[in-house]
Design brief:
The chain is 26% helix and 32% strand. It is built from five helices and ten strands, in the order αααααββββββββββ.
């Protein structure tokens, strides 16, 4: 029990409150607008977002309907904090032999985090084209570690040499090409909008 006689909330309630506030903020809604859409009072919504109360199943169900997700989706978004260290041996490596592309998930995505870190390798002459981003407006930072990489986005080609970094939001097609003569290795930071 806390000093005021209420049950102390655990970390899940705190993370859930923060996620609920984040969902409302992403839509640009005031507490009043959310109250109108959900049929839940402003004060209850405010207390849930600040983790002053543990939300009931009924409250979560109403909010899930407004935010267009299932209860399990919402709860998975607030699961325990990810492990802080991802060992090299535990990083997933995927290779597309046909295109000469190797992708290592250095810091893989997690429901509670917005960013991930990927190591990309392209052999000389490799040319990868993507017709669209997986999420429109995806933020990417491409930092070339070794070699040369040509990245085309929004019809502009950027030539990046070792040490160069390209920052962009991806809205349409992109192309990653290694002109050679040596292979290219780069770090890619991906941040959800």
């Amino acid at each position: 029990m806390g000093n005021d006689g209420e049950l102390e909330l655990d970390g899940v309630d705190v993370r859930l409150g923060a996620r609920l506030a984040e969902l409302r903020s992403e839509r640009g809604w005031s507490l009043g607008e959310l109250a109108e859409r959900s049929g839940v009072s402003r004060s209850t919504l405010s207390r849930a977002e600040r983790a002053e109360i543990s939300p009931t199943a009924s409250l979560l169900n109403r909010l899930c309907a407004v935010y267009g997700r299932t209860m399990s989706q919402l709860l998975s978004e607030v699961e325990a904090e990810p492990v802080p260290v991802v060992r090299a041996a535990d990083q997933t490596v995927w290779a597309d032999e046909a295109s000469g592309f190797v992708r290592r998930s250095v810091s893989p995505p997690h429901a509670g985090l917005r960013g991930e870190l990927v190591e990309g390798r392209l052999r000389a002459g490799a040319d990868l084209a993507y017709d669209r981003p997986p999420v429109p407006g995806l933020e990417q930072h491409v930092w070339v570690l070794d070699g040369t990489l040509e990245v085309t986005a929004q019809d502009v080609e950027h030539r990046l040499d070792a040490g160069d970094c390209l920052r962009l939001r991806v809205w349409g097609p992109t192309r990653f090409r290694c002109p050679g003569p040596e292979d290219v290795r780069y770090a890619l930071v991906v941040v959800l909008p």
